[in-house]
């Protein structure tokens, strides 16, 4: 291959894989860090958006999956299993296909976006739709992996989070140091844990002169970290972060405390407003869960909790194409026309 080799090769000294292992990669990582002029104007900050939808399967999960799958194959495993709100399953299915391994995915029935289900189907995963929540699925996946020869590739597998640290490295490498504030959507809380570990590594090694305050945002109907206790029936339009009992609870709490950050809840209405704003004003199409980071940015700015003049990075975690139903729900009536230039001109009010 040519160009960017994927996160394991690019960060060899930081992302360990077993001696002699052949890396399972789709050349994930090296995603754009895009300056956001409109968000900067609204907040009085310098806002950049880390576009993780640009990864091979359209979400940040690929950074961890390349590492987890490399370990699993090197250990001689034939199959992997995961629970997912959709993106982990899409990534696991793709990387398993690449590795020549099998995959089984447990998803909450009726609660995952269509694009993600399509990916799991296309990559040949065994898809099990569970009549329960993501939290139920994770418990089932853990029990299955404990009893049978399949590797669990959820972020409770620690090598996943080592791979996900590389997003923080890329941001520091691009900006020359860490931002002042980093905004993330939080579901199972692996990603905020991984980012904080990545920023901490760079700070300790003098590769950056600061570490950001970590701002973690949850959907109002699925905000266990904000409430301080698990939520038994989480609900939100942002299905990717519909998680009631985050596996990396302690990691998230440590990230917030050590960084001087915050957790806050954003309503579905605010999430959808940020979702539309990102697409219509910044040209960046993300899935609803990803827009929680930007909804939170705008809310904390309005509340005066975001120091003006800060350098801010918002991670947008997954591509908008993952969830076409949410986008199409906003669609105005679309005109039907004959093959006629005059009809086009009339429809566009050019005459
Ligand atoms: N954004 C998206 C698009 C996600 O898919 C997820 C998690 C998150 C944010 C939250 O990240 O869990 O590390 O706090 N999705 C998991 C999944 C739960 O199964 O795909 P987190």
UniProtKB/TrEMBL annotation:
Keyword Transferase: no
EC number: 4.2.3.1
Signal peptide coordinates: none
The protein's required cofactors: pyridoxal 5'-phosphate
Alphabetic keyword roster: Amino-acid biosynthesis, Lyase, Pyridoxal phosphate, Threonine biosynthesis
Isoglutamyl lysine isopeptide (Lys-Gln) (interchain with Q-Cter in protein Pup) crosslink residues: 143
TM region positions: none
Pfam family, one: PALP
Binding site for pyridoxal 5'-phosphate: 87, 187-191, 317
Catalytic activity of the protein: O-phospho-L-homoserine + H2O = L-threonine + phosphate
Matching PROSITE patterns: DEHYDRATASE_SER_THR
Domain Tryptophan synthase beta chain-like PALP, residue spans: 24-318
InterPro entries linked to this entry: Ser/Thr_Dehydratase, Ser/Thr_deHydtase_PyrdxlP-BS, Thr_synthase-like, Thr_Synthase_bac/arc, TrpB-like_PALP, TrpB-like_PALP_sf
Chain positions with N6-(pyridoxal phosphate)lysine modification: 61
Gene Ontology molecular function: L-serine ammonia-lyase activity; pyridoxal phosphate binding; threonine deaminase activity; threonine synthase activity
A GO biological-process term: isoleucine biosynthetic process
PANTHER family: L-THREONINE DEHYDRATASE CATABOLIC TDCB, THREONINE DEHYDRATASE, MITOCHONDRIAL-RELATED
UniProt family annotation: Belongs to the threonine synthase family.
Function: Catalyzes the gamma-elimination of phosphate from L-phosphohomoserine and the beta-addition of water to produce L-threonine.
Protein name, UniProt field: Threonine synthase
């Amino acid at each position: 291959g040519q160009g960017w080799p994927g996160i394991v090769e690019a960060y060899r000294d930081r992302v360990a894989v077993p001696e002699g292992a052949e890396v399972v990669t789709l050349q994930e990582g090296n995603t754009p860090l895009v300056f956001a002029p409109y968000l900067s104007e609204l907040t009085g900050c310098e806002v950049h958006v880390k576009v993780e939808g640009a990864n091979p399967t359209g979400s940040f999960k690929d950074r961890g999956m390349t590492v987890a799958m490399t370990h699993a194959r090197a250990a001689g495993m034939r199959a992997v299993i995961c629970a997912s709100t959709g993106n982990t399953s899409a990534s696991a299915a793709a990387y398993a296909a690449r590795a020549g391994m099998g995959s089984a995915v447990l998803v909450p029935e009726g609660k995952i976006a269509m694009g993600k289900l399509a990916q799991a189907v296309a990559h040949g995963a065994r898809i099990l739709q569970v009549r329960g929540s993501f939290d139920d699925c994770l418990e089932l996946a853990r029990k299955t992996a404990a009893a049978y020869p399949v590797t669990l590739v959820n972020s409770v597998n620690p090598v996943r989070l080592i791979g996900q640290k590389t997003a923080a490295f890329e941001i520091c490498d691009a900006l020359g140091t860490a931002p002042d504030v980093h905004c993330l959507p939080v579901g199972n809380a692996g990603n905020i844990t991984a980012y904080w570990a990545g920023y901490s590594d760079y700070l300790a090694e003098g590769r950056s002169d600061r570490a950001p305050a970590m701002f973690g945002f949850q959907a109002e109907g699925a905000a266990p970290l904000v409430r301080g206790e698990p939520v038994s029936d989480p609900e939100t339009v942002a299905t990717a972060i519909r998680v009631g009992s985050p596996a990396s609870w302690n990691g998230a709490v440590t990230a917030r405390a050590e960084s001087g950050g915050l957790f806050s809840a954003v309503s579905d209405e605010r999430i959808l407003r940020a979702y539309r704003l990102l697409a219509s004003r910044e040209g960046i199409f993300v899935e609803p869960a990803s827009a929680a980071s930007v909804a939170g940015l705008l809310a904390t700015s309005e509340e005066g909790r975001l120091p003006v003049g800060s350098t801010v990075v918002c991670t947008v975690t997954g591509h908008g194409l993952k969830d076409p139903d949410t986008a199409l729900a906003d669609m105005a009536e679309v005109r039907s026309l004959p093959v006629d230039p005059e009809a086009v001109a009339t429809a566009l009010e050019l005459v």
